[in-house]
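Feature request disguised as a bug: please show the residue count (549) next to DNA polymerase III subunit gamma/tau in the output. Example input:
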Amino acid sequence: MSASTTLYNKYRPLKFSDIVDQNHIKITLQNELVTNKLAHAYLFTGPRGVGKTTIARILAKAINCSQRPAEQFEPCNECSNCLEVNQNKFLDLVEIDAASQTKVEQTRENIIAAARVSASAGRTKIFIIDEVHMLSASSFNALLKTLEEPPAKVIFILATTEIHKVPETIISRCQRFDFHRIGVDDLEQWLAIVCQQEKVEYDQAVLKLIAKQAEGGARDALSLLGQVLSLSENKVSLDQASLILPRSDLSVISELVAYLCKQQAAPAIELLNKSIDEGIDLVQLVKEMIDYLRQGLLLKLNSNQDKLRYDLDKVYLKILREQVNKTELANILLMLDTLLEKFGQIKFSVIPQLPIELAFVIICQSHLSAAPLAISSPLTPEKVLPSKEEIKNDYLPSDQNITIHKTTTNTTATSIPKPMDQVIPTEEITKKKINISWQDLPGKWPEFLAELKKYNHSLSAIAQICHPIKLVDNELIVGFQYSFHQEAMSNIHNQNLIEVALKKIFNEDIIWRPIVDQEYEQREAWAAEINNSVSSDSSDSVDVAEAFS
Ligand SMILES: [Zn+2]
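Example output, currently without the count:
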């Protein structure tokens, strides 16, 4: 028996409280045990190695434990029934691997006929059918009849990693529990406890590496730890672990990303090759780089929240935050997109690192839109919304028959805000005089949105939630609440489409200039007004992602 299986057997949970995570499932089952309201059939679904059969066995043991007080849920692990379950000798616990018994004859004989044979006095017969999705259609049909009219004192626990292959008729007969991957932090803590009990020294970085590598599976995590321990009985060092665990180095990854952010392909390629020469696993490195960038993407989208769980060390999380703050969303998307595409080409490449080198060059060569404009000084609401008098005097359109007034009954004067001097970008932009004024915009805005919709639904949808802020000669400054919208509306392709639509409706060359608007919410009235005048079309499914392409 190898060291890893020894460790796995040794630390396999024997009671509910030993199980890492899956609290939502434990609590429900424990409650059913205490109230004696057990189902006839359970369906456990989720990834491999997250505790499905382990919990099934503990449940079977708790049900049959002869010393369990009615108000408790944990099996005693001391009575003869408990001991027999732990030693795989309990005759009324039948474990079936459906993958090796797919035929209907086997199902009839080993499950259905066996279920009719009563359990020993005072016991409940438990069938654990693992990988149940492997059963044939006729096997499922045969099983269904038994699930519909279950024999007394029989409980079925079906487990599967592929719930979509289990017929709906079977699922609906079972109480279903969805197991999830175990969090890296939980796995890491659990591995530390195992190390302490094994009295081995450990490097926390190795445990984190194992926990990440196990991808949420407790069984894999323990197997990997066992393999690392088999190299040296009482120490878990990073050097040893790197012999077994695919190793990459976060410092290399963050340095590579830093080069790519600065569009420096040459030093990035140099560092990549140096790392490979030093023994870093290319596939693992790129995988972790994609993971690193993905976390950067999540940070970018939730910059004010800490709700998401980040698996990075604090040091690297800080570095990543800084990189993300200085990098546009479009740039992060480009890096992820390119690496994901080129990653798949590694195994077909004569020179394995060539696709990744190409990815670096593509990322650094790609034209990226200029840094977004920002409003330099926050505006107070008083400055943003002009008084009604001001609007009446200066800003109401002279043509009172424009669409916006025809279609809206409760038009208020504040719905057309005063253009603001404060938002003029400081840099000089080539402008030209046009025959369109700010006052002309609201009337034709719905037409513009409709025109844009012909080219791209999602662009039109995003344009609906922007607020035009100011028209400076032929440059139209529009505000968005979120930078990801602003960036989507700034990319060259989308900008061209928008400007074509503007040209068609206003018959002028208007420059589209999206900004992130710190005062967005104060301008809500404007958008509400416009949206009211756009006929809503509920049959359109708007795919916002389309605009980001
Ligand atoms: Zn017991």
